[in-house]
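FORM 7B: Structural annotation worksheet

SECTION A. Query
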Amino acid sequence: PSPHGTGWRHLPGAHPALVRRQTGKRELSQSVSGRGKGLISSVLSTLKGTFGLELEVLDYSEHALGQGTDAQAAAYVECAMPDGNVVWGVGIDHDVASASVRAILSAANGAVREG
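SECTION B. Predicted structure
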């Protein structure tokens, strides 16, 4: 968790819409949903609508970590907060969509720390 006691993370093997939120010493699993034009915009919509956390993606990239069908994907995001501060996130998973969600949640955790 962050120094402020709140953090989000994607649950392994779970649907990307299932996140675990930690507030202080309590950890809650919460199923959330949001709508958008794609996966990333849906996750951003969910963070804003459910938790009040607003982020705008400024840059996104991804690449394979290795070769072959067992290679993991790495996704990177640069996000702006409403106050103009910038946070970055990284996600790694065998599935590029899950890596993207992990990257957004990584940036969200950075935004909470920036607070």
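SECTION C. Observations
Residues 96-114 form the longest helix (19 residues). Confidence is low (pLDDT under 50) at residues 1-6, 14-18.

SECTION D. Sign-off
Analyst initials: ____
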